């Protein structure tokens, strides 16, 4: 069992398999992209297997695969097959933009990997294409509907962007009211590769809820797990639910149970903090299991208490990175 220096059990790993993405969302990176890591700096699938296996033996029982866009890696299913074989791993999930998942939906279902988060910041074609800078609306829509109709546990992640997509908050809830889907609205964060800086946001979690309540006053707050990052609600008459994630306000830090490892092997104990170590050399060539275990224990034992404390570790450069390089 992994326990951090604040008494919090760490059982959830967000494992990034690539920093590349086939979209260019304007809140994530500049239009020309970022300096993506060279292939030889990325963890190989075998190295990702090794890292995940060691962490599961240390007490991680939930792994979310992230990117970049995970399905950019053509060998991703090799890793997912391996994870599905780990008896101590209770929960495997994937966060995706749903552009490339289509050919893999059947196998994902066979493997029991049915928890899928779809990043979707608009249900309007024009707005979607303006935000993503790509023409992938039809593909995303088709794959999303397929995931829903085939019984996947789908969560839609919608980042509320002032002046860009707030007009789609209510229409998205209306479209999804007949489906067993959780629509989660996230506060914007300044991890955009340095293309935009801000110290405050208009659409914080309270503003998002107030906006929803104007149209749907008959909602109830749901009981959520202590470690949940989202505050969850149900609207009367809706099959699904909605949630709000205070990703910028960081109200959930006190119960954080997450560890991140990015695509190049950096160990990140907080999205807002500096990497604590790198595992690549420890698992490349002659894998050093004890070395990896020691690095993880040291990182977990020196976590910042909150995201605001973690931000102080590199306050001048914390927002220079793109979300795709941090691990989603």
What does this structure look like?
This protein is of the alpha/beta class and 328 residues long. The protein has a single domain (2-326), classed as TIM Barrel (Alpha-Beta Barrel). The protein has helices spanning 45-58, 76-84, 105-111, 125-132, 137-149, 169-175, 205-215, 280-283, 289-300, 307-311, 323-326, and strands at residues 2-3, 9-10, 12-16, 62-66, 91-96, 115-119, 153-159, 182-186, 219-221, 231-235, 241-245, 258-261, 266-268, 277-278. Strands 9-10-11-8-7-6-5-4-3-12-13-14 form a twelve-stranded mixed β-sheet. A hairpin with a 5-residue loop joins strand 1 and strand 2. Helix 1 runs parallel beside helix 2 (76-84) and helix 1 (45-58) packs across helix 9. The chain starts with a strand and ends with a helix. The model has no long low-confidence stretch (mean pLDDT 94).
Could you report the average pLDDT, rounded to the nearest whole number? Answer: 94
Query: What is the helix tally?
Result: 11
Count of the domains: 1
CATH class: Alpha Beta
Shape: globular
What key attributes describe this structure?
328 residues; globular; 11 helices; single chain; alpha/beta; twelve-stranded mixed β-sheet; TIM Barrel; two-stranded antiparallel sheet
Secondary-structure map:
Blueprint (H helix, E strand, L loop, with lengths): L1 E2 L5 E2 L1 E5 L28 H14 L3 E5 L9 H9 L6 E6 L8 H7 L3 E5 L5 H8 L4 H13 L3 E7 L9 H7 L6 E5 L18 H11 L3 E3 L9 E5 L5 E5 L12 E4 L4 E3 L8 E2 L1 H4 L5 H12 L6 H5 L11 H4 L2
Parallel strand pairs: 3-4, 3-12, 4-5, 5-6, 6-7, 7-8, 8-11
Antiparallel strand pairs: 1-2, 9-10, 10-11, 12-13, 13-14
Helix pairs in contact: 1-2, 1-9
């Amino acid at each position: 069992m992994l326990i951090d220096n604040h008494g919090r059990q760490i059982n959830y790993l967000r494992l990034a398999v690539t920093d590349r993405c086939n979209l260019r969302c304007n809140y994530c990176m500049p239009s020309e992209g970022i300096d993506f890591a060279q292939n030889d700096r990325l963890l190989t699938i075998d190295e990702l297997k090794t890292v995940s296996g060691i962490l599961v033996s240390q007490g991680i029982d939930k792994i979310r695969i992230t990117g970049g866009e995970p399905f950019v890696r053509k060998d991703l299913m090799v890793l997912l097959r391996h994870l599905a074989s780990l008896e101590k791993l209770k929960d495997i999930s994937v966060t995706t933009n749903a552009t490339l998942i289509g050919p893999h939906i059947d196998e994902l279902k066979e493997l029991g990997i049915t928890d899928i988060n779809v990043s979707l910041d608009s249900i309007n074609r024009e707005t979607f294409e303006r935000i993503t800078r790509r023409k992938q609306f039809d593909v995303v829509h088709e794959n999303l509907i397929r995931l829903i109709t085939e019984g996947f546990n789908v969560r839609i992640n919608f980042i509320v962007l002032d002046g860009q997509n707030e007009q789609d908050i209510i229409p998205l809830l209306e479209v999804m009211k007949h489906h067993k889907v959780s629509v989660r609205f996230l506060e914007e964060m300044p991890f955009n590769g340095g293309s935009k800086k801000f110290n405050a946001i208009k659409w914080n979690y309270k503003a998002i809820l107030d906006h929803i309540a104007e149209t749907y006053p008959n909602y109830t707050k749901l009981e959520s797990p202590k470690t949940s990052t989202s505050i969850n609600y149900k609207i009367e008459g809706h099959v699904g639910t909605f949630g709000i994630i205070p990703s910028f306000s960081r109200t959930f830090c006190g119960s954080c149970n997450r560890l991140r490892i990015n695509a190049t092997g950096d160990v990140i104990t907080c999205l807002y903090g500096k990497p604590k170590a790198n595992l690549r050399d420890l698992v490349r060539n002659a894998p050093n299991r004890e070395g990896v275990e020691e690095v993880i224990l040291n990182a977990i034992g020196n976590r910042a208490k909150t995201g605001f404390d973690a931000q102080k570790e590199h306050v001048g450069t914390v927002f220079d990175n793109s979300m795709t390089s941090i691990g989603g």
